[in-house]
Amino acid sequence: MSILVIVAGASVILWIAYRTHGAFLAKTVFRLDDSRTTPAVEMADGNDYVAIDPWILGKPAIHPAIPVVSLVLIVLAGLMAIETTLAIVRKRGHAPSAA
Questions:
Q1: Is the pTM of this model over 0.70?
Q2: Angle at the Cα of 89 (from 70 to 98), degrees rounded to 5?
Q3: Cα first-last separation, the chain
Q4: Do the Cβ atoms of 90 and 84 come closer than 8 Å?
Q5: How far is CA 13 from CA 17, 18, 43, 64, 99, in A?
Q6: Closest Cα to residue 73, out of 65, 62, 63, 85?
Q7: CB neighbours of residue 82 within 10 Å
Q8: What distance in Å separates the CA atoms of residue 36 and residue 90, rounded to the nearest whole number?
Q9: How much is the pLDDT for 9?
């Protein structure tokens, strides 16, 4: 089986888990509701409680994807190291010995 097939399959599985687990947490654990107002709107005083543009709040949304992407890159690097090692061993004509 090709490494690309394994990585692509793992990436799809991790992406599906990321999307479904996030939706599950939003509905059941955190009970997120867009109709509720935030304390910055309810208690706006211009000093401690100041509402900000929602567009700015959307920017940190990339951070949850970092562990998923880094995991895929780590797996890719490991598989490439194994393939490289096996290619070198095959080129030299040595068969890996069974332990």
A1: no
A2: 90
A3: 24
A4: no
A5: 6, 9, 43, 16, 34
A6: 65
A7: 11
A8: 64
A9: 92
Instruction: Identify the CA nearest to 22 among candidates 54, 55, 68, 53.
Output: 68
Size (the chain), residues: 99
- Residues 42 and 48: their CA atoms lie apart, in Å, by 12
- Contact (Cβ atoms closer than 8 angstroms) between residue 72 and residue 11: yes
Query: How much is the pLDDT for 21?
Result: 87
Counting as low any pLDDT under 70, the low residues of the chain are: 1, 56-63, 94-99
Give residue 89's pLDDT.
Answer: 85
**Whether 20 contacts 78, CB under 8 Å:** no
Q: What pLDDT does residue 61 have?
A: 60
Buried/exposed code over 27-48 (b: 16+ C-beta within 10 A; e: otherwise): eeeeeeeeeeeeeeeeeeeeee
Q: Residue 59: its pLDDT value, please?
A: 60
